[in-house]
């Protein structure tokens, strides 16, 4: 699974007086959809005897989320951390993740049969682009926005949310990548025994751009095609006309306005 | 790679600090300095009034491409039951504007099988060209076939901008195409503008749940790709003009895709169509309970409006999930939006702020929703809405 540490979004707030971001007390959490990815992987592990590895690219603090998922029952965590990864857009992120995945597969001799599970989207950047880009980079099929999946010896059958009113059932061979929505399951909590295990040294590996043999032009800021020009806080658009009076009066005024605006 | 602050030029105005979403800039002795948690996003570079901040990239950017070879604006159509999805039509309208500014052609790219008798109708939407990729298998959506066809077309025709609806389909193939082309892609844009000098597309989108807007560009790669949500841009007017039609037939076999579509299931629930609704009445936690939601439904009925709500109402089971409006729900732009007992959290606002007229009813005069409303009523919705229903009935019978 690929998991990402994100700020707890409800904590990213705007100070209405200064119109600036309030950052105090912003907790870093596991991206909510990625918890569903972990839960799915653990359920598949219980059924099929698989090795479950969680991978995250981020600053050294992202170790916290890897420890947390180890405590949930994940077998191994891999943290990709390096200043050279900073500033990555989705192209550079998916490239970096693919390097690590290839390395892990090679070392464990499982290049033929594997399943990558991502969250459908992250709540910070909110793009959902990393999963398909990662699948393309690995040259494997993808099924995004998955609501349910059946895994068998060498294939998967997945329900994919397609339209507001339609679901499509798709089958594909392994190896493959899926990205999951939050409706797929209810993530479990870490267990006490799990928390003990999570701190066993061997369970967490660190990789950097050197150990990955990364091409410096394809990672971090250099590997990113998109550039942030500016960041701003959305401004309010209109000054409202406040309607005052008795209930009967205000609704009369409202209907009058809406008539003038040619709504009725 | 690093952010460099010219200490001579820095005046300690703190504009950069405010622009930094990572909280990675601080002042020391009235001079800005960068903390190790900087993510190199570069937002501070733009805001510095003294031009004291620069982003030092190692000069190892991959292949440099000749961006002047790329011309033209494309919209890749999403379709359903032989009709073009509204979001693609809205992109044709915006695409026309961008193509005119750039003085290039606007093309509609459509992949499917039974559109021969529809192309004339489609050609009324203001494009210069329709590229119709025809293959029986393309009656369904396959991510790998879409990726293959579109990348090949792009390599051959070199468009400079590609616009795609941010639907589950568009969000599935656009990244795959972008990766194969090593092109930049911006998701869920709410604003598109052109810098005529550089021909860069300035793509504005909400991030961090809509708490922040970011404007993004892709200066060194082409095509510039963006996905856009439904309801952000206007629908195009129909026009009669000469449209060049290019039909390309592909002989795909089923085994050409690594995916097999087993079946498509329609959910039986009455399908909700908030994206196309002319009027929407939306309720929030302020409604109080599932039973009390009845009054909101009644208001929707007399107005012939669709019913919607905030996320909390969905979480509390007062409302069906497909009626949620906002960042993690639908983006809507009706002519009239009546928000009842909704506080106006940013995640809700990003989904409805493009509505024509916004009416807010809330008992808290300081609710943020009033900052976005055209008409505001401070009071208890359970008293105001019944009165409003009566008044609307009266107004309607007079007409
Ligand atoms: C990642 C993320 C994604 C999110 N996505 C969405 C999304 O897509 N859509 C969405 O809506 N939210 C979303 N949210 C939640 C959002 O932050 C708010 O919590 C939510 O919109 C608030 O809903 P509300 O306005 O109904 O409730 P509240 O904020 O509780 O507001 C209720 C309002 O009702 C008023 N009220 C109470 N009683 C009455 C009465 N009798 N008469 C009149 N007024 C009354 C109160 O004054 C108050 O202003 C998201 C949050 C996160 C973290
Ligand atoms: N830095 C990262 N490290 C690990 N996984 C990531 C990272 N960024 C994105 N992902 C994965 O891609 C999904 C979608 O992220 P995004 O494309 O950023 O919305 C997430 O839910 C993760 O599964």
Structure description:
The complex is a heterodimer of chains A (264) and B (399). Chain A is an alpha/beta fold and 264 residues long. Chain A has a single domain (5-218), classed as HUPs (Rossmann fold). In chain A, 28% of the residues lie in helices and 27% in strands. Chain A has 6 helices and 14 strands. The radius of gyration of chain A is 23 Å and the shape is globular. The relative contact order of chain A is 0.16. By secondary structure, chain B is α/β, with parallel strands linked by helices. Chain B has 3 domains: 2-56, Alpha-Beta Plaits (2-Layer Sandwich); 67-256, HUPs (Rossmann fold); 274-398, TPP-binding domain (Rossmann fold, 3-Layer(aba) Sandwich). Chain B has 10 helices and 22 strands. In chain B, helix 4 (119-122) links the parallel strand 8 and strand 9 (129-134). The mean pLDDT of chain B is 91. Chains A and B meet through helix 3, helix 4, strand 8, strand 9 and strand 10 of A and helix 2, helix 5, helix 6, strand 11 and strand 13 of B. Strand 13 of chain A pairs antiparallel with strand 14 (212-217) of chain B. The structure holds flavin-adenine dinucleotide (FAD) and adenosine monophosphate. Residues 2-4, 31, 33-34, 37, 55-58, 90, 93, 97, 118-119, 121-122, 125-131 of chain A line the site of adenosine monophosphate.
